[in-house]
Amino acid sequence: MNDCMRDDIKRLVEQHPCYSKGAQHKFGRLHLAVAPKCNILCNYCDRRFDCVNESRPGVTSEVLKPAEALEKAKEVVKEYPFIKVVGIAGPGDPLANDETFETFRLIKENLPDLTLCMSTNGLLLSDRFDELMEAGVETVTVTMNALDPEIQKQITDHVIYKGKHYRGIEAAELLIEKQLEGIEKAVKAGLAVKINTVMIPGINDKHIPDLAKKLSDMGVFIMNIMPLISQAKFSHIEPPTDAERAALQKECEPFVQQMKHCRQCRSDAYGLIGKDLSQLSDKRRNELKVISKNEKTKL
């Protein structure tokens, strides 16, 4: 793993709770759920259900329009000034939704001090990269689960690219090719790149170290190995234990820095990692507002 972090990326991640373990207790993030459409179907993905106590990717209580997202961002940042990052992570794939770029443009114009972040499956990252840069996005997360198409085809049901549906090995090869192409562009452009990888026992768990080596060669900043949530077509697969995931992280750590504090957040989460304000009571949120304002006065 390369320990020489570029100064500009270092400054950027110091206030990003997903990229810095130290930042997670000081700074928060706001996810704006403006992107409902998705262009791939993963066998572990289920976006049909939502309740206030659920915390998993793809879940949101409502999908916002860009103007509504801006108003929410203004309100949340005013009430909780420790939130420094605004991200779009679904509930579908942000790059499959034009609303993503309109939302980023509005945030950049009205709240220019916030870091803009996006999470994607990577299929359209290369194709829409120039638009992403124009929107002012500085950190990108790509969910990538395999380098081997034979493994990837077990994870992805289908891919939709330029209006055509792909399945099987053809879909897997296309997705991996486009992911690598997009990641390379993002790293070369100086973005802080994080890779999310879902650890799926019996399918890709033995293959993930090979992916970590490749990510290291590409200059990826950090890797987040997430446990499978047993649902959808993978509801029959037991998720990895904490010990099994920790062992895999240790195996991959010599190649690329490992994120170990992820909580697999909702698409509309906001606040500190592990302390999602969207799931707290009104009373507790009001208490945190007071604490946040007091901390701001001390600065």
Report on this structure.
The protein is an alpha/beta fold and 299 residues long. The chain has nine helices and eleven strands. The strands form two sheets. An eight-stranded mixed β-sheet has the order 9-8-5-4-3-1-10-11. The relative contact order is 0.17. The model is unreliable at 1-5, 49-56, 279-285, 288-293 and 295-299 (pLDDT under 50).
Summarize the structure.
With 299 residues, this protein is an alpha/beta fold.
Keywords:
single chain, 299 residues, alpha/beta, TIM Barrel, 8-stranded mixed sheet, 3-stranded antiparallel sheet, 11 strands, disordered N terminus
Supply the CATH class.
Answer: Alpha Beta
How many E strands?
11
Ranges where pLDDT stays below 50 over 5 or more residues in a row are: 1-5, 49-56, 279-285, 288-293, 295-299
CATH superfamily: Aldolase class I
Q: Beta-sheet strand percentage?
A: 15-25%
CATH topology: TIM Barrel
Helix and strand pattern: HEEHEHEHEHEEHEHEHEEH
Any chance you could write out the topology, listing elements then pairs?
Blueprint: H1 7-13, E1 28-31, E2 40-42, H2 66-79, E3 83-88, H3 98-110, E4 115-120, H4 129-135, E5 137-143, H5 149-155, E6 156-161, E7 164-167, H6 168-188, E8 192-199, H7 208-218, E9 222-227, H8 242-252, E10 270-272, E11 275-276, H9 282-298
Parallel strand pairs: 1-3, 3-4, 4-5, 5-8, 8-9
Antiparallel strand pairs: 1-10, 2-6, 6-7, 10-11
Helix pairs in contact: 2-3, 5-6
